[in-house]
Structure prediction request, 77 residues.
Amino acid sequence: MRRTNLVLDGESLEEARLALGTKTYSETVNQALADVVRRHKMRSIVQFFGKGLWKGDLSEMRDDRPRRRPRRKVAAR
Prediction:
């Protein structure tokens, strides 16, 4: 933990505290910081989608699987 002095807008801090459901201002600020870091990490993951990380032929892979036989319909009793 690091102790520091901050000058914050009181109304915004109270609104954030209520929105986050936290009990203290320190808890509010810590949770808000953690949320910002989490969102930043999530955005950085998106850059990997569609970049061709996996190389293979899905059709070829599917041809290797044994074919399932369709289920027989069971007559109602």
Remarks:
- The CA atoms of residues 62 and 68 lie 12 Å apart.
- Helices lie at 10-20, 25-46, 58-64.
- DSSP finds three helices and no strands in the chain.
- The mean pLDDT is 84.
